TrEMBL record, chain A:
Ranges in coiled-coil conformation: none
The protein's name in its UniProt record: Multidrug ABC transporter ATPase
Species for this entry: Pedobacter kyungheensis
Family label: Belongs to the ABC transporter superfamily.
Upper lineage: Bacteria, Pseudomonadati, Bacteroidota, Sphingobacteriia, Sphingobacteriales
Signal peptide start and end residues: none
UniProtKB/TrEMBL annotation, chain B:
Membrane topology field: Multi-pass membrane protein
Name of the protein described by the UniProt record: ABC transporter permease
Record has Ion transport as a keyword: no
Entry annotated with the keyword Transmembrane: yes
């Protein structure tokens, strides 16, 4: 298992943002993390990536405990935070080089060129990040997540705010990355889930209300569309 | 850590922050030291830099907050802090990188003022009649003072997402750390502990080093002072998770 989460919780005062959730994710599959706004998707992802400390529970990324082997776990994670924060004052390649250096990568220049090509940034590679359109900024976000070739990719709403053309491109990219890695993405778009996800977890008010493969969940709810299932479980 | 340090430094140098703050620092210190009659060394008539060294701490109270205010405040507001802490780097390395890059900038502001030393030594009679030992001591003192103020600045920046608030807190803390203990010790209530209280303030130690006597106690004071504020920064940023 590349990701295994056990009884992970995060409380803010009395509110339970994430309430003792457990799940696992396997390599070669894309896991869709669904739920209404405020259900605890981002909080869970932030705990897995080491940004937030869990109130209780634990998780392992590629066999490395996120609490006791935090640095080793972080090396195996590629993370795209919500809203894609980036250093707007840096140039695309300069930024990717910086990210690569934080992982201590060797042959960095070649690797930067490689990921620039992979995510389709070639025409914009000499610009400042602040000058890029949202779609290209998203690609920079993906590029920094994959530059160290991590086992696990955690992408928080990677397609929000993209136009239909960019959507298709980014989905294809995620799908191709998912072939070899463990990918967790959060999204609100059900067509997207149908298009790229293999497994689904639906989370509501901090608790997991469904955890199955895409076919499995459809079978369970016999014929209902994914959208209806989502509404039924979280409304 | 080196990668973060380099990024911080480049972002200072590629934005106008560095040039404007250092430029204004040099302009103001130059005007005060050479031109304005009340503080000018030319009016004063003695070829020494003491006036300059007693002036700079006050300028640092504005220069240093301007440099350090963005350190954590901006990153947290922009959300890039999330990007930074999810890298395989320890928190203390991030803090050290930000601290050192700001300190380099303070150093860059100080270096051009060596020309004042040169000018004054030329103006002395006979030429070169200047107490070099005291000048070197004062520069070391100024650097240590800058290091302490920078630590305060990094800490202030960790308290808030708002850069203006970080600036004001830093300026106030610097002023208090520099003079506050001296003034407070004069309050009749604290008469009994006047001397140990004054010893807590930066001014005492800065003046001591400026005399050209580098006492290990003063050195330890400045190192402890900076380390304390960097440690507090770590507590603040660690608790924010």
């Amino acid at each position: 298992m590349s990701i295994s989460v056990k009884n992970l919780s995060r409380h803010y005062d009395k509110q339970k943002a994430v309430d003792s959730i457990s799940f696992e994710a396997r390599p070669g599959r894309i896991l869709g993390f669904l739920g209404p706004n405020g259900a605890g998707k981002s909080t869970t992802m932030r705990m897995l990536t080491g940004y937030l400390e869990p109130t209780s529970g634990t998780a392992a990324i590629a066999g490395k405990n996120i609490l006791t082997e935090a640095i080793a776990a972080k090396r195996q994670i590629g993370y795209l935070p919500e809203n894609t924060p980036l250093y707007a004052d840096m140039y695309v390649k300069e930024f990717l080089t910086f990210v690569g250096q934080t992982y201590g990568l060797s042959h960095l220049a070649a690797r930067v060129d490689e990921v620039v090509k992979m995510v389709g940034l070639t025409p914009e590679q000499h610009k400042k990040i602040g000058m890029l359109s949202k779609g290209y900024r998203q690609r920079v976000g993906l590029a920094q997540a994959i530059i160290h070739n991590p086992e696990v990719l955690i992408l928080d709403e990677p397609t929000s705010g993209l136009d239909p053309n960019q959507l298709v491109d980014i989905r294809l990219l995620i799908k191709s990355l998912g072939a070899a890695k463990t990918v967790v993405i959060s999204t609100h778009i059900m067509q997207e889930v149908e298009a790229i996800c293999d497994d689904i977890i639906i989370i509501n008010k901090g608790k997991i209300v469904a955890n199955d493969s895409l076919e499995g969940i459809k079978k369970t709810y016999g014929g209902l569309s994914l959208e209806d299932i989502f509404r039924k479980l979280t409304a | 850590m080196y990668a973060v340090f380099k990024r911080e430094l480049f972002s200072f140098l590629s934005s106008m922050v560095a040039y404007i703050t250092i430029g204004i620092f040099l302009l103001v210190s130059g005007l005060l030291f050479w031109v304005f009659p009340d503080t000018s060394v030319l009016e004063y008539g003695y070829a020494e830099l003491n006036g300059f060294f007693s002036l700079v701490p006050y300028l640092f109270m504005f220069l240093i907050p301007a440099i350090t205010m963005r350190a954590f405040a901006e990153e947290r507001r922009e959300g890039t802090y999330e990007l930074l802490v999810t890298r395989p780097i320890q928190l203390w390395q991030i803090i050290a990188a930000k601290y050192l890059s700001s300190l380099v900038l303070v150093l860059l502001a100080l270096i051009p003022t060596i020309i004042y030393y040169y000018s004054i030594s030329k103006l002395g009679f006979p030429e070169g009649n200047i107490d070099s030992g005291s000048v070197i001591g004062s520069y070391i003192g100024l650097f240590l003072l800058g290091a302490a103020f920078t630590a305060i600045g990094i800490f202030s920046s960790s308290l808030t997402k708002n850069q203006v608030i970080a600036f004001v807190i830093c300026a106030a803390l610097c002023a208090f750390a520099f003079l506050g203990f001296d003034y407070t010790s004069q309050v009749s209530l604290f008469k009994a502990i006047e001397s140990p209280m004054m010893n807590l303030g930066i001014n005492q130690h800065y003046t001591a080093i400026s005399r050209g006597v580098l006492d290990t106690r003063d050195l330890i004071y400045f190192i402890t002072f900076s380390a304390l504020f960097l440690f507090l920064t770590k507590l603040m940023m660690g608790g924010k998770r």
